[in-house]
Amino acid sequence: AKLDGRxxxxxxxxxxxxxxxxxxxxxxxxxxxxxxxxxxxxxxPQMSLTNGSVRSVEALLRWQHPQLGAxxxxxxxxxxxxxxxxxxxxxxxxxxxxxxxxxWRTNGFPHLTMAVNLSAIQFRQPQLPELVSRMLAExxxxxxxxxxxxxxxxxxxxxxxxxxxxxxxxxxxxxxSMDDFGTGYSSxxxxxxxxxxxxxxxxxxxxxLGDDGNDRAIVSAIIRMAQALGMRTTAEGVETEGQLAYxxxxxxxxxxxxxxxxxxxxxxxEAFMRRQLH
Length: 278
Ligand code: C2E
Ligand code: CA
Ligand code: CA
Ligand code: CA
Description:
Elements: E1 2-3, E2 9-10, H1 14-33, E3 39-48, E4 54-65, E5 69-71, H2 73-83, H3 86-106, E6 113-117, H4 120-123, H5 128-138, E7 146-150, H6 159-171, E8 175-181, H7 188-193, E9 198-201, H8 203-207, H9 213-228, E10 232-235, H10 241-249, E11 254-255, H11 266-277
Parallel strand pairs: 4-6, 6-7, 7-8, 8-9, 9-10, 10-11
Antiparallel strand pairs: 1-2, 3-4, 3-11, 4-5
């Protein structure tokens, strides 16, 4: 039993204990993951619904540990955030994704853009806009070739600071996407003040588009609102022809999901893009 601040006893169940042991194990293993080259990126295409081309690719972090195996980012990112390691890891992701983008842009895909997920912790670093600009310059990439994917969580603690950072990134020409849109707490009045290029409609609304009238209404409302605010829309988690047909009919700009492609290694994604060209 453990005594907490209010003099009450908290008991750990065996299950809770196993969870915290695992979290500690992962935190320790994460400390060595970068230097041991255990991270790599997969890339998932975001398809234009107007001309069927790959408009953008999203970089998704993968961690392969010799004993623990493949650990999901949904499990290790929160641990890296709590321990502060997300800053170094996030910088590695940004550099690796931009380096890959440079290679693709100079080898047949000159208009491709790269989407990179940012943790709220990275977003709150005052040096972030400077870091991003410096890295783009390092690779000779134009700022609008990068899309930073943020979640509504970035604005929870300090909406004013979030607006200021977005303004700075926007002034530098970098695009921002609101990830998992519709699942967080941001208000519409806040959204209006954000310099957001694109709303990514969360996969939880896309999943049941076939048979849930409410989800159809929500998705259609998000698309119309984005259009009114001058933002693009990308639907996430598109798995079926039926979902795609509805999204197209409603004027969604882009779609991403297993229907088109799973996240792929760089050579696999390049082969996918070459097939699209023919
Ligand atoms: P996310 O940014 O919302 O990424 C979308 C997730 O949905 C990815 O899971 C992707 O593999 C999965 N997905 C794509 N298409 C489909 C589909 O058609 N159906 C279904 N069911 N799922 C699909 P993944 O790669 O496991 O990543 C999970 C989350 O981890 C991401 O969610 C993101 O929040 C976080 N993440 C991944 N890479 C990074 C990173 O480099 N930095 C940060 N901060 N977070 C990352
Ligand atoms: Ca994302
Ligand atoms: Ca998402
Ligand atoms: Ca998500």
